[in-house]
Write a structure and sequence with these properties.
This protein is an alpha/beta fold. It has helices at about 15-25, 40-50, 85-95, 105-125, 150-155, 175-180, 185-190, 195-205; strands at about 1-5, 30-35, 60, 75-80, 95-100, 130-140, 165, 170.
Length: about 210
């Protein structure tokens, strides 16, 4: 199954999410590969750190979109940005699912709407059914009194053909710290709030894999 992690805006946390999901799947015994189709190649960098430091499980990372194909029994996570728009469009045409991390701001909601237009356009070009699209609030405010997180989630619910995931990832230092160490957040600090949030989100997104 090919899962594309994508949005139009930078800074939404795509690479951090892609890395953590890939390691989470591999740690749960699944065959996983990743694609880094962003010019910054952040996913490539963090996987190299992981390999150099001898952390396991290791997950292969590719950078050539022409190698992207649906392989039986393999979970493929694709990190893609708009700097390589052609790669983004190709990845969408091949995707089984798309996950959109959306920070709590109106600008990100507007960007999400435009990204969905591209998903629809590329699906029609490919002559195939639109992939299932998931959206969740990423980098959410940890103070429940701040209304932007709640407003963003409500705005996402108004979008057509999007499954809004209730699970959120907060704006926590644990994500930055673990990423720089080449570790998933649940590896560095298994009992941290960040780890709990990531585990909950991953289980929602990939729960079907555990149903025989």
């Amino acid at each position: 199954m090919i899962t594309v992690v994508g949005t139009l805006k930078g800074g939404t946390g795509k690479s951090t999410l892609s890395f953590n999901l890939a390691i989470w799947l591999a740690s749960n015994g699944f065959d996983v590969e990743t694609f880094d189709l962003d010019l910054q190649q952040t996913l490539v960098d963090v996987m190299e750190i992981r390999e150099e430091d001898g952390f396991e499980p290791l997950v292969p990372v590719h950078t050539d979109v022409s190698l992207l194909e649906n392989k039986p029994g393999v979970q493929t996570i694709v990190d893609v940005g708009t700097a390589k728009m052609n790669d983004l469009r190709q990845a969408i045409r091949k995707a089984d699912r798309i996950i959109m991390p959306v920070p709590p701001s109106q600008a990100d909601v507007w960007s999400t709407q435009r990204f969905l237009d591209i998903v629809k356009e590329e699906s029609e070009k490919a002559g195939r059914k639109q992939p299932q699209v998931f959206a969740f609030v990423n980098k959410s405010d940890t103070n429940p009194a701040i209304r932007e997180t709640r407003e963003t989630q409500e705005a996402l619910k108004m979008l057509d053909d999007v499954r809004v995931v209730v699970a959120r990832l907060g704006l926590r230092t644990g994500f930055r710290r673990s990423f720089s160490e080449g570790l998933a957040v649940f590896e560095l600090e298994p009992r941290s709030k960040a780890a709990i949030e990531m585990n909950a989100l991953a289980m929602v997104l990939f729960s079907s894999l555990f149903i025989e």
